[in-house]
């Protein structure tokens, strides 16, 4: 069976990879934007217009995160694709990429918020004290540190996306899981097909987690792995690369 | 105060426009036939994962239809779709969609027909229309050859057996006709059913005869029990057959029925036997 269906398995795997990569990257971008908007300061001396606008924006973003996290992606795909995207004439794959990015964005918003919280308050205070605006503080001081902190969670989301993209077969994307079902269904013999499917998923997720670990090491720079807090020097534990725990 | 109010109103207007846009999902079905003829193409949805009705294969022959993913679809359902397309004088396009996505795809206009071994149950008739049946089959029970039920011949023989069937099908509802049966939870698809049977988690599953013939052909430790007339499941013949699904009030229904009327019962048996013979087999 493997010898006959190798091309289908390959195209299915490519579809899965494309959806997972685009979904995670776009989701991360959405999450960063949401986090920046949510941390915009609202001071007592601001105009009523700005206060009302910020309140509405906070409400909308909160609603977006709760609704998208609270409903299964399959349901979101069925509703949004068949009620909206099909009328707009979007190709199925583009529709799937939008759905998976919006879904991941909701999770990433919370992950990035956690990352920003983990950057000590002293950083933001220091930036303010030298006269940086909020956007400068965010872009130059807080987010670079927060991004390093969220890398393990982003890797997690990436791995989850690789496997969750399989529900998008309901909008006619022939990805790895659906291909395995088709290959097994042709022979009425599903176990070999699903074993191949499991092996390919494992190879994908293992490669991704190793790749993310490599990116983390590059972000840390200088061949050192940071195992402690970035904001409390007393808690810092810096280890040499060869002694780093291989997680 | 005025400004805040106007902002809130603006937001509400935008949201309601979006929701209104999203909720208009009804497509005018009476123009279906004209639309199809104008486009020169009819789009059919099926899973392509369920031999001998519809399956996917990597190579083409005179019976196959090319799928958007690059593979080829073949099976009894594909042959019926081809006949309908030829009769209407249009091209045939097949979309492989997972079972749960078939009805939404049809209702929203993504596909024009569902030919996926789907039975016209009362629940489905609430949302879509069905043509006349394009294949009648009797229900059989797939069991393990070395199991206690391999030599069963009537429904009563299955008292105490652990039986199940596919989720969301009428196969699952008829299990109750066996008195004393231990009805198990429905499983999602035939992969799960076959796995459960070969591992011993269940004693048998309900299936239509062509599916059972395929399963037994590829799994030497399976057998199927065919019931004699009157001794098997009592089911509404309309519900136990399979029909083509179309949108409510579609103008395609009449044309499809004309095509199906021209395919006699012997023709249908012959088509099904040919499909079973063509399905991929492990060497």
Structural overview:
The complex is a heterodimer of chains A (247) and B (283). By secondary structure, chain A is mainly alpha-helical. Chain A is built from eight helices and two strands; from the N terminus they run ααααααααββ. Chain A has a two-stranded antiparallel ribbon. In chain A, helix 1 runs antiparallel to helix 6, helix 1 packs across helix 8 and helix 2 packs across helix 4. Chain A is flat. The mean pLDDT of chain A is 87. In chain B, the strands form four sheets. In chain B, strands 10-9-11-8-12 form a five-stranded mixed beta sheet, with helices on one face. In chain B, strands 5-1-6 form a three-stranded parallel beta sheet. In chain B, strands 2-4-3 form a three-stranded antiparallel beta sheet. Chain B has two domains: 146 residues, 3-Layer(aba) Sandwich (D-Maltodextrin-Binding Protein, domain 2); 93 residues, D-Maltodextrin-Binding Protein, domain 2, CATH 3.40.190. Chain B is built from eleven helices and 13 strands. With 283 residues, chain B is of the alpha/beta class. In chain B, strand 3 and strand 4 form a beta hairpin. The longest helix of chain B has 22 residues. At the A-B interface, helix 1, helix 2, helix 3, helix 7 and helix 8 of A face helix 1, strand 2, helix 4, helix 7 and helix 8 of B.
